[in-house]
Design a protein that fits this description.
Blueprint: H1 3-11, H2 17-25, E1 28-32, H3 67-80, E2 84-90, H4 113-122, E3 125-129, H5 148-172, E4 176-180, E5 185-186, H6 194-207, E6 217-222, E7 233-234, H7 238-247, E8 253-257, H8 267-275, E9 281-285, E10 287-289, E11 291-295, H9 301-312, E12 320-324, H10 333-352, H11 358-362, H12 366-376, H13 381-392, H14 401-410
Parallel strand pairs: 1-2, 1-12, 2-3, 4-6, 6-8, 8-9, 9-12
Antiparallel strand pairs: 5-7, 10-11
The protein binds ligand L2XQQQDX and manganese (II) ion.
Ligand L2XQQQDX binds next to loops.
Catalytic activity: L-rhamnopyranose = L-rhamnulose
Cofactor: Mn(2+)
Pathway: Carbohydrate degradation; L-rhamnose degradation; glycerone phosphate from L-rhamnose: step 1/3
Length: 416
Amino acid sequence: MSYEQAKARYAALGIDTDAAIARLKSVPVSLHCWQGDDVRGFDTDPAKPLTGGIQTTGNYPGRARTPEELMADIDQVLKLCPGTKKLNLHASYAIFEKGEWADREKLEPRHFKKWVDFCKARGLGCDFNPTFFSHPKAESLTLSSPEAEVRRFWIDHGKACIRISSYLAEELGQPCIMNIWTGDGFKDIPADRMGPRMRYREALDEILSEPYDFARVKPCVESKVFGIGVEACTVGSAEFALSYAAMNREKCIPLMDNGHYHPTEVVSDKIPALLTFFREIALHITRPIRWDSDHVVRLDDETQELCREIVRCGGLEGRVKIALDYFDASINRIAAWTVGFRNVQKALLMALCTPDLTALQNKNRWTELMILQEEQKTLPFGEIWAQYCRVCGVPVDGEWFAGVKAYENEILKRRG
Ligand SMILES: C[C@H](O)[C@H](O)[C@@H](O)C(=O)CO
Ligand SMILES: [Mn+2]
C-alpha cells in the first residue's frame, strides 16, 4: 500500500494525515542524555555507584565515557529520530576545563557552555535537572536531611541549577524545563514521616526563591512511589509533589514519571485529571516492568494511551512537557535511545490520526465506540509513519539499524 492509499483510508474517517504529520513535526520531545552513559555523568569519580534508588543493569560495550563520546553518540541518535528534539541534561554532566572541578553547589553556567554550543549548532533547546544522587553527600537524605549542612549544600545546588537553567533558556531561546527529583526516603519504617516532608518543602521554597522568569524556566517536582533501598517511605511521594505544585502554581509544575506509581495505576488517566487544574504539566515517559525498571519505551498500550491523552487534552499546545527517561545498559545504547524515541513519536502520530469519538461516549453508544476503537488498530498506520520519517529526513523502519551496527563496530567496540 502507498502513502496515498493509506491517506485515503484515514480521510474516509475524517482524518487529515498530512496535517497530523505537519503538527507532530514541531512538537518538542526531550531526549535524555543519560541513556548514553548509564547515568554516570562527568563530575565525580566515574567508578562511583549510581545511587538514589535508581539502577542500570547490563554491561553492553560502548558506554560513553567523556563529553565528546556522549556528544558523538547523541548525534547518531538525532539523525535517526524524527521530529523536534530538545536535549535533557543533568547537572552531573557539567564539563570542566582541564585541571578544574567544581562541586555541585558551585556549578556555574559556564560549565555548560560546551553543551550550549552543541545545542546551538543543532538548533536544539535544552532541559535541565539538578543531580541529587550519585554523590558523597547523597548517601542518605538530601533536601530533606535533618542535617542543616547537608540540606544547605543541596539547596545551593538547586539554586545553582536555576541559574544554569536560565542561562540555557536565554542562550537557546527556548524555555528550559528544570526537573527536581530526589531519591530521599527510608528503607524501613521511619519514626517520623512528616519532619522530612516539612524540610523538603522548605528546601524547595528556598530553591525556588532564586530569581527566574517562569515563562522561560519551568521548575518541576517529580514524585516517586519507592526506590531500591528506600522501599518503606519516599519523601517526595505523589501526594507531596502534587500538593507542592498545586500550592506553588506560579513557580513550578508537577512532573509524572510513568514508572513512579503502583503497577496497576496508569499515568494516561492522570493527565486529564491534572490538566483539569494545572495549566501545564510535565512527563517522563519510560517503561516500568514490575517496578521502576526504566526499560526502553515500547509501542505498548499504555504508551499509546498516554499519547492519546496528551493529544486529546491539548497537551501538544504546550500544556504537556514531554521528556523521556529510560536507561538500558544491556543492549546497544544508541539503538535503545532510538527505539524509545521513535516509539513515542509513533504513539503521538497515531494519536493525531485517531478520530474523536467523544460524541459516541456522550450519547451512551458504547457498542459502536468499542467497535471503532478496535477497528482503528488495523488501519495502515505504518504508511503514515513512513511518510512522517521521509518528511523529517530520517530513515524509515528497517533502514536504520545497519548504520548503528556499523558505528558499534567502528567506534563503540574500541571503547574500553
Ligand atoms: C535520571 C533521572 O532524573 C531520574 O531517572 C529520575 O527522573 C527518576 O525517574 C528516578 O527514578
Ligand atoms: Mn523520571
